[in-house]
UniProtKB/TrEMBL annotation:
This is Uncharacterized protein. InterPro entries: Spore_wall_assembly. It comes from Kwoniella shandongensis.
Length: 373
């Protein structure tokens, strides 16, 4: 990928989606893993929608949008809820001129139904989806055609004055806990999310529940970005202090990428499958970051002074004094000449995969780690 893309981290989520859609060498083996389970889940979700529609419609009309006591009763717009003769009102959903009038019963119905359908589909694809995510990452890395030596050079410091880790609490994996982790975890706790969406945001404005994923994704941003690069850190053999330092130096890059990835995964139903493309995007970003690491390892680039690090912690493409693209092409040629045999050594094995992900891949909102072997 062009070096300039490193300075636009959220675009890697679109790169991942593009490769998933257009690259059959990745798309077919990945989607084959979830195809049959997805069909079963969609069928069950469709049956559930038909069977529960009237019941949920009755619940919405009598308990949520009833003009006398429903959650829209005090909006004072004069259009929300049900009128005295039972006619349905509308709510304005959206911001400013982009807003549209939507039937209040249908809107509330869908706010409740779509997360339920996502949960049903998730139940059927959960196990295979985790494997598909891991497969997507492994196939993307292997498609770059680089040997193990390219990925395993270890941590190379890119800052002349790197951040110093402060003493503090460690999690169960031995990582440093950031100062804001506790209150963010409380806000992301599912009962808190339920109260905020259904009993605070929705009564205040019909648009706020649609904006809730923005807040949640912002809070998850840096942990999501760091989590999606865990396989990369494992390949490099980085310890917990090096991971902390790496992410701290690029914290706004990881926040930007993590926000975009978490927001895509928060979308009902399709977010389950976008979590696969997020893995591909994370692998593509890791590849570009590793090419940059080789530039520092070979003294083509030198550690950045504090005035050079920039917003994303990686300086600017046009102020480093070298032709970055030309230097990266040389690195690419150097390692592309090496072929990897089935046994993992140098040889004429050609297109064999250079790594294998064992275990189950996890999504941005799930606990646990992956191990790349």
């Amino acid at each position: 990928m062009p070096s300039e893309l490193l300075h636009l981290p959220p675009l890697y989520t679109l790169v991942g989606l593009y490769r998933l859609v257009t690259d059959p060498s990745i798309r077919k083996p990945v989607l084959d893993k979830v195809k049959h389970a997805s069909v079963r889940g969609i069928v069950v979700a469709g049956i559930y929608t038909v069977v529960s529609w009237n019941t949920l419609d009755w619940f919405v009309r009598h308990f949520l949008v009833d003009g006398s006591g429903g959650i829209f009763a005090f909006l004072k717009h004069g259009k929300a809820g049900l009128t005295q003769d039972g006619a349905e009102g509308v709510v304005r959903v959206g911001l400013w001129k982009l807003g549209v009038d939507v039937n209040v019963v249908l809107y509330t119905h869908l706010l409740i139904l779509l997360p339920q359908l996502s949960s049903i589909l998730r139940f059927f694809v959960y196990k295979n989806l985790k494997l598909a995510r891991s497969r997507a990452y492994a196939l993307t890395v292997s498609s770059r055609g680089k040997p193990h030596e390219f990925w395993s050079q270890g941590y190379i410091e890119e800052w002349a004055e790197p951040p110093r880790s402060r003493s503090g609490e460690l999690d169960r994996n031995g990582r440093r806990v950031r100062a804001d982790t506790q209150w963010i975890s409380w806000l992301l706790w599912w009962p808190t999310q339920l109260v905020l969406r259904k009993y605070l945001f929705l009564p205040l404005s019909p648009t706020l529940p649609l904006l809730a994923p923005l807040l949640t994704s912002f809070l998850r941003a840096i942990t999501t970005g760091e989590y999606l690069h865990q396989p990369y850190f494992d390949m490099k053999g980085m310890d917990n202090d090096e991971i902390w330092k790496w992410v701290e130096e690029r914290k706004w890059a990881y926040r930007a990428f993590g926000f975009a990835a978490a927001l895509l995964e928060r979308m009902p139903i399709v977010g389950l499958f976008l979590s696969i493309s997020n893995r591909i995007g994370a692998a593509m970003w890791a590849f570009d970051l590793e090419k940059r690491q080789h530039l520092f390892a070979n003294n083509i680039l030198h550690p950045l002074q504090p005035s050079q690090v920039g917003f994303y912690g990686m300086g600017r493409v046009d102020d480093l004094g070298v032709d970055i693209q030309k230097a990266e092409d040389e690195i690419d040629k150097k390692f592309s000449k090496k072929k990897v045999s089935r046994g993992g050594g140098d040889g004429d094995g050609g297109d064999e995969a250079i790594l294998e992900i064992r275990g189950q891949g996890l999504g941005a909102g799930e606990k646990g780690r992956e191990k790349v072997l």
